[in-house]
Amino acid sequence: MIMNDRGNGLNAMVAMFLPSVSGVVVWSLIVLWATASPIVAVSYEARSFLKTEIVRKKGCVERATHRILEGTRQLRTTAPSSGNTLRARGITGVLGALQSLRARSYNGCFVSSTLKFFVPLSLEGHSVPPTPFVRHTVRPLTSYVQHRRTPPTKPSHDREKLKMGSCFSSEAGTGDLQNDRSARLKTTRIDKQLEEDARKLRKECKILLLGSGESGKSTIVKQMKIIHQNGFSQTELLFYRPQIYRNLLDSARTLIAALQENELLPAPLPLDLAEASAKIDGAMVNEDYKSVLDASIVRACEKIWAYPATKRMVEDPALFHTFYLMDSAEYFFEAAGRISSPDYCPTESDVLRARTKTTGIFETRFTSGNLQIHMFDVGGQRSERKKWIHCFEAVTSIIFCVALSEYDQVLLEESGQNRMEESLVLWESVVNSRWFVRTSVVLFLNKVDLFKGKLGRVPLGEYFPEYEGGPDPSKAAKFILYKFTKLNRAGLKVYPHLTQATDTGNIRLVFAAVKETILQNALQDSGIL
């Protein structure tokens, strides 16, 4: 209800109730607005209600309520002429509390309605501080709330007194009209600014790359640089040289260990094979990109790869699943002669296949058309997933990468866990997460080239007995897609794509489709940015 008191110029309270997403938490924020001066107060009833709610709730509810009360206290006790800084702090406190509620998926309508009472503060010259919450939540929300608050007009009985020539002079009436016109102009300017800010936000998007280790996330980021940032410079290509040397040596050492584990090496070792093994074991990679790997070490790697037992072990499914070998190992072994050259400079194809474990979070920014894209690549190993939480807020879209060819492989960190099963578990936790209820999800079924080549010699049915489609790549891919989509209990829209992350042409076409998906779904609601 609203009550007017002409003696002290204080409006009555306005109570707003907020149902949470879970239907359990009910909020009430009491905001009073003064007609004579812009003062916000909290009544005794409001304090009593909030106190009762605090008793029932813990954690963020208590902190948010405290910030609301503290912010309104500062606004109540600070006169308009005593300084805008304290009043701005009060506004920031209340808005910060609303931010904590919104971050936990509370109904945005509550925030939108509450903002109606804070936007008028700027009409009196007390502008809302440009905090991240104001930029990304206050302005987008107020831009689409169909409410235009204007300063209150004089009651009808006051206008009658003006007509009757009472104590109000004609000069005072003219002043009121001028103030009213000035306030309306300020309101219009604010509305235009809010709409302009919302348009800018709609041109930005935040994409999170998720997936298990070695699913192709970092390769996608490299492709974005090639497609949208004019590729790699000569110096940037050279920086990948030590990493490629390391990939070659690690793959050779893995093969030697697997040959020994499976007892495929003769005893004693032939002299040439023993020398090659010794050279590889003792080799060190200089991290200086100007250094070159000794040609004799590269020849030793070639010898291990060409050994007949190595070929038999790699092609035998019963043996291959007992050890981990990076997908690009064969590529680098075949290119060993070129890599051993003293003036070797990695190509973009080499860089796309170079493998290093992603630790932490890496952000890539680029422009595609008129869209500003922030892409985040996070580590896919189990030890890295706890860091993902810092990227979840305000995500426009998720690209979840799955390596189709991993159905017969095991985790690097746990040799007894199938990598496809691990991806399914991870997908289930992501697609049903409360963080992504308003996020478009793009599913990249990656490494389709390796998948096609493997199906003929490693039947998918051996690892998923319910599959009966044989070596047909199309049927096999549809089966794996079905395995993922049936875990989508939240009913999110999922946009699947078959991809080959090392093929720039393929990724260029796929990402164009992804961009259209983002524009048509997530960016229409600027409140999530």
From TrEMBL:
SMART domains: G_alpha. The chain crosses the membrane at residues 12-34. One of its GO terms (molecular function) is GTP binding. CDD domains: G-alpha (cd00066). Keywords: GTP-binding, Lipoprotein, Magnesium, Membrane, Metal-binding, Myristate, Nucleotide-binding, Palmitate, Transducer, Transmembrane, Transmembrane helix. InterPro entries: Fungi_Gprotein_alpha, Gprotein_alpha_su, GproteinA_insert, P-loop_NTPase. It holds the Pfam family G-alpha. PANTHER family: GTP-BINDING PROTEIN ALPHA SUBUNIT (PTHR10218), GUANINE NUCLEOTIDE-BINDING PROTEIN ALPHA-2 SUBUNIT (PTHR10218:SF369). This is Uncharacterized protein. It comes from Saitoella complicata (strain BCRC 22490 / CBS 7301 / JCM 7358 / NBRC 10748 / NRRL Y-17804).
